[in-house]
Design a protein that fits this description.
With about 1000 residues, this protein is of the alpha+beta class. It contains 33 helices and 31 strands. Strands 1, 2, 3, 4, 21, 22, 29, 30 and 31 form a nine-stranded antiparallel beta sheet that branches. The chain has a six-stranded antiparallel beta sheet with strand order 14-13-18-19-17-20. Strands 6-15-5-16 form a four-stranded antiparallel beta sheet. The protein is elongated, with a radius of gyration of 36 Å.
Length: about 1000
């Protein structure tokens, strides 16, 4: 079919397509979803199991181990990690990367079923395993609620009201309140008075259970009406509990709870998490949006609802954004759209400058329609405007004009010789449509590794492949349909676009260089070979990386106190650290989380699990440029706050992957051997001098006090283990006797020892233990052998069912993780490992290796497609051989560009390198096809090589220039900068390869002499 002739004869069809793409693109721009980063599925859940009173090793042996055995039988399992700590087992389950988000709910249901089956065999006293599958929820609208003039209960009520209203906002999926201070009703009881009356803790617990539950008063019929009878309760719960009566055993006398206990409503001693914002106590409200909505619109609605709510609530309440993804996305997308517009303008102006205004307008209009049509298809494919998809459009910008330039210039030149627009368009489209289509498919196939990658990185970058696919296919369709129609309107028959028929100075200069290279073809190839070998050798000097730090003006400070530190002591250190941070210049806000990390406010942040000795500080700086300066101020300015603690800083990261950049994992059976190996590795890192923030994830041992229950004497006294345990709790942290509900909040009722003037240990020694069999109290010393202090592990980490200790560290300020790892890896690998112990590397090395491995799985298929197309296009072996001989030489420009700009070769650089292959192959195909066509038309082969290359000079050079200029805006984006440098530097040299190396190799393989 003659596509060009049909398009000119039936232009209404082409204009209908253009109108649909333009109007659809405009509509899509207003309706398409907007996100900060593309969504990727976190294929992990956490399984929590409580085992109160058990030590870490007992938890590991009796809870973690049987659960891991059950979980390991799942065929979908990829990785299993666990942390066993006193009283709690935490297991992280990660499934294989090839399962998508739609399959995960069924997998988690299977996990729950397996856990239910094994739960019946867990020891008595353990809780049921709880699967936390909301681990990957992202709360992009993250607020701090503070009210310094109000008490804890009022702040909790304000949070409840705000949460209720926000849940009614369109587009909001979930609102989570964190940091609500736990309150409890504490009954301070004199132990001697309790013993004298013979009242036991079980008696009190039964009293509360019988009287504090809801009561049904029944119903009666009055005048044909159904009337419910209410058993009234006191409005004051403390008063209600105080007035509960119990009978003194062995008598007919009764007394009130208030007669034996002093009741107080007070905060719990141990809070699960404490949150502060800019030095004041606070709560956080974390808002997540539905998956298919525009986060900017949701953010605007939420902020409007918040402002309206604050007007109705008392003065003094502040709800401040900690992280407002809506404004970040709005600013980011607007910036990218500005870059996109700038790229379109730069490309169009460049074409006008080098091809004349007519061709500039033709190609520029095609480019505009392609971009708008791509946005329309993105909307229909449910691909949002986000960092990756918009970056992909800028990346594709230079490639989009290639097809249009070839057709437009060919049509313009033939019309200049007197041919009609219809004949010129028909000739050039027929001549180039299949080579251009094949070259376009090859350009798409270069990105296929991303589309076929099944890990989190591939999912994160999938929209890059999808947008390139859509835009390049559309560019080919419009090149063979719209360009002929526009050329028919703009180009003039028989009129040269240039004022001079003679070759330009640039063409004469290039011809002399090309003929010189052809005459010295072996010298030319040898020179290119030497340069390529030197480039590959110099690649070792290029910094290696994975994903760069985020451009958000944020950084994190992690505080780890000694592992046995109480959360109240951690709070004091956190307050001091907080004041130090707020006093720094350019710091605008500090959010403090004590006891655990923040909620997942962005996909690339992985929150730390609950830990009393941990504090997390989110530090916001006024501008991105000042982040490094503030971090340098803090580099040695925090250690004096707590000499026993570890402070380390972290920048928010682009892309998946988090945690320490350097990790060495030692696995084996014995905890002492593992600790010794970790200490040796830490010493190597300390000796290095450049590596910082060195620690390991088992942290310090703690110590426990064994109360030494005396089985023999306790048996004689009739004291059970349960009786003994209740007394220990009563004399220490408090014994839970019951729960009372007040609205939507439940208060624990806790008995604690009153009138204790001695220390806690002495109070325990002097306490009385209830004998459930003899129904009387006996002295604690009678049923205990004494108190014994002993060391214990507080965190036993396992990976894939093996005990594993991980040494973690960060590279120095002026080096990449890859460079630091290259230096320390042989030293640590030289450490002698006992039999049964192993070493493996994690951190950025593992994340990068996994991502490249997943990418590599798709590359063979992509390169196979590229190779097959190159062979099918020519039907011979020598032409494809020329192309594939040139491809490896592209590394010269890549290495040169990265070394000159001191940019790392990260994962995005790797994608740029692969896309460079597609660009190079595409240009080489069109050039070789032109040489073959001229030879078929009867031109001498030696002349055809020169003439064809000369005819491709302007299209190839213009395609390169437009691509390079289109990439320029990305140099200022932290995420795409190294990719832009890779493509710009590589394409510069690839253009030389296309115009020099391809003709020279053609002359060698076809034995054409120019001497």
């Amino acid at each position: 079919m003659d596509i060009a002739r049909f398009s000119i004869d039936k232009p209404v069809n082409v204009w209908l397509m253009v109108v649909i793409l333009l109007l659809g693109g405009i509509i899509a721009m207003t309706e398409i979803g907007r996100l900060e980063d593309p969504a990727f599925t976190i294929k992990q859940v956490k399984v929590f199991t409580a085992y109160p009173g058990a030590g870490a090793q007992k938890v590991e042996r009796e809870i973690t181990e049987p659960l891991e055995i059950a979980i390991q039988q799942m065929s979908q399992l990829k990785k299993l990690k666990s942390t066993s700590s006193p009283g709690k087992s935490e297991i992280t389950v990660e499934v294989k990367s090839n399962f998508d988000s739609n399959e995960l709910p069924q997998i988690w249901d299977e996990l729950r079923k397996r856990l239910r089956d094994v739960a019946t065999s867990l020891p008595a006293g353990s809780g049921d395993p709880v699967v936390f599958d909301d681990f990957g929820d992202v709360y992009g609208l993250y607020y701090a609620l503070s009210a310094p003039d109000f008490d804890t209960r009022e702040l909790r009520e304000f949070a409840r009201v705000i949460r209720r209203e926000l849940l009614t906002t369109q587009g909001v999926a979930k609102v989570t309140v964190t940091g609500v201070q736990k309150e409890r009703i504490v009954a301070y009881i004199n132990p001697y008075q309790l013993a004298g009356l013979g009242i036991s803790f079980p008696d009190l617990a039964q009293l509360f259970q019988d009287n504090l539950r809801p009561f049904n008063g029944g119903r009666i019929k009055i005048d044909e009406k159904n009337v419910r009878l209410i058993v009234e309760r006191a409005p004051d719960r403390l008063e209600e509990i105080s007035n509960l009566s119990l009978v003194i055993p062995g008598t007919n006398r009764s007394l009130r709870v208030a007669d034996v206990a002093t009741l107080k409503l007070e905060p719990a001693d141990i809070q699960p998490v404490l949150i502060r914002y800019n030095g004041s106590e606070a709560l956080t409200l974390a808002v997540s949006a539905l998956s298919d909505v525009n986060i900017v619109d949701v953010g605007n609605r939420v902020n409007a609802k918040v402002n309206a709510l604050l007007e109705t609530l008392p003065v003094g309440i502040e709800l401040t954004p900690i992280y407002d993804q809506a404004s970040v996305v709005d600013e980011s997308v607007d910036g990218f759209i500005a870059n996109l517009v700038m790229s379109v303008a730069v490309v169009t102006l460049t074409l006008c400058l080098f091809m004349g205004w007519r061709s500039g307008v033709v190609v520029g209009m095609v480019l505009l329609v392609t971009v708008m049509g791509t946005i329309l298809i993105m909307w229909l494919m449910n691909i949002q405007l986000q960092r990756i998809s918009l970056g992909a459009m800028v990346i594709a910008m230079g490639m989009l004009v290639d097809n249009a330039i070839v057709v437009a210039e060919g049509m313009m030149l033939r019309m200049a010789t007197g041919n009609s627009a219809k004949d010129s368009a028909s000739f050039i489209v027929k001549r180039t449509q299949w080579p251009l289509l094949g070259a376009t498919v090859i350009g798409i196939a270069a990105f296929s590794g991303i589309g076929l990658s099944d890990d989190a990185t591939g999912e994160f970058l999938y929209s890059l492949f999808a947008v390139v696919l859509v835009s390049l296919i559309m560019s080919w369709v419009l090149a063979v349909t719209l360009v002929p129609v526009l050329g028919n309107y703009f180009y003039k028959k028989g009129v040269k676009q240039s004022d001079d028929d003679k070759p330009s100075a640039m063409q004469r200069w290039f011809t002399s260089i090309l003929t010189g290279a052809l005459k010295l073809r072996w010298v030319t190839i040898a020179g290119l070979l030497v340069i390529t070998v030197v480039a590959y050798g110099s690649f070792g000097y290029v910094k290696q990386g994975f994903f760069p730090p985020s451009n958000a003006p944020l950084f994190f400070v992690h505080y780890w106190g000694p592992q046995d530190r109480d959360i109240r002591a951690t709070e004091e250190k956190a307050k001091e650290t907080e004041q130090r941070l707020l006093a720094l210049d350019n710091v605008t806000a500090v959010s403090t989380f004590i006891g655990q990390g923040a909620d997942r406010f962005t996909l690339t942040y992985a929150p730390k699990s609950a830990n009393e000795n941990y504090a997390f500080f989110m530090v916001r700086v006024n501008t991105l440029d000042n982040v490094s300066a503030v971090q340098k101020q803090l580099a040695n300015g925090l250690e004096d706050i707590d000499l026993d603690a570890n402070f380390y800083m972290e920048r928010m990261q682009f892309g998946p992957g988090s945690g320490a950049k350097l990790e060495a994992r030692f696995a084996g059976p014995d905890t002492e051997v593992l600790r010794r190996l970790a200490d040796q590795a830490k010493q190597i890192l300390f000796d290095d001098g450049n590596i910082k923030d060195i620690r390991h994830n088992w942290r310090e041992k703690g110590f426990a006090i064994n109360t030494l229950y005396d089985n023999y004497n306790a048996g004689i006294a009739g004291v059970s283990h349960s009786d003994f345990s209740q007394t220990v709790q009563y004399a220490s942290s408090g014994l839970k006797l019951g729960t009372v509900q007040d609205g939507d909040y439940a208060y624990d009722i806790v008995a604690k020892m009153g009138n204790s003037t001695d220390g806690e240990l002495q109070a325990l020694r002097d306490s009385q233990v209830w004998s459930s069999q003899q129904r009387q109290y006996v002295p604690f010393a009678q049923v205990s052998k004494g108190l014994e202090s002993l060391p214990e592990e507080l965190r036993i980490q396992r990976k894939d069912r093996l005990r594993t200790i991980t040494v973690e560290a960060e590279p120095g300020d002026n080096e990449t993780a890859a460079k630091a790892l290259e230096r320390i890896r042989p030293l640590i690998e030289d450490m002698p490992l006992p039999p049964g112990y192993s070493l493996e590397w994690g951190g950025e090395f593992e994340s990068s290796s996994d991502a490249q491995k997943a990418l590599g799985k798709g590359l063979p298929a992509g390169f196979l497609v590229m190779f097959i197309i190159s062979v099918l296009l020519f039907g011979h072996a020598r032409q494809p051989l020329i192309i594939w001989l040139v491809v490896p030489m592209a590394i010269v420009g890549v290495v040169t560009g990265l070394l000159l700009t001191d940019m790392p070769f990260g994962f995005m650089s790797l994608l740029g390198f692969l896309s460079l292959f597609g660009m190079l192959i595409k240009n080489a195909i069109v050039l070789i096809e032109e040489i073959d066509l001229q030879i078929e038309e009867g031109i001498e082969i030696s002349n055809a090589i020169v003439e064809a290359t000369l005819s491709r000079l302007r299209p190839v050079a213009l395609a390169a220039v437009t691509t390079i200029l289109g990439m320029a805006p990305l140099l200022f984006d932290a995420f795409f900068a190294d990719m832009a440098v890779t493509i710009m530097g590589g394409l510069t040299f690839a253009t030389i390869l296309t115009l020099i190396a391809v003709p020279v190799l053609y002359s060698i393989l076809f034995r054409v002499s120019y001497r």
